[in-house]
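Input sequence (214 aa), recorded before submission:
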Amino acid sequence: MNETHATLEIETPLGIFVLAATRHGLSHALFAGSEALPCAVAAGATESAHLEAGRAALVRYFEGEPDPWRALTLAPQGTPFQQRVWNALRHIPHGATCSYRTLADEALRDSPTATERGQQVGAGRGSSPAAARGGQRDGAGRGSAPLVRAVGQALRRNPLGVIVPCHRVIRADGHLGGYAGGLERKRWLLQHERVRAPALAPDWIPAFTGVIPV
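Predicted structure, token format:
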């Protein structure tokens, strides 16, 4: 049975931001107009508590508090591979970035077999099981191009923008890469998290070269 979602709109420096919650926690946090936002119903007490907690955390974030998300209950829906990628995102420190390839390696840190890796890459591409096996034969292991593409697709499907910080993932050459909310918003968010940093070039930000903590 499909979950019902209650929603709340919030004014931010980047435009209207919409939170959605089920009784299990926050399911979506996206800019208004996103096609991924669910249809809304009236909020019950549990949903209202999740929405209010999300609103308060977002206000603190835009006021400059680093990562005020720890007390939030998150309930995004996705495949096991997508969940693994989204979980890895939450370990990128505030004020840092990492590459798509580094994130791909983090996402598969606990994958026990090459077979699982091939299946995950195929699932990330929306491929059939046969295509997943083909990806495995082509080298769908850690850091491979198919895996990096699958991670990019998982980022585009991240339903908890800002809170699960896909904006901190950039290209290995230091350029911004993509962002579902638009590159201007991605650039703004990265600058917001580095208030004391020198002004950034139009499409460049230094890459985080450290190890993502676990």
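Checked by second reader. Strands lie at 6-12, 15-22, 25-31, 98-99, 169-170.
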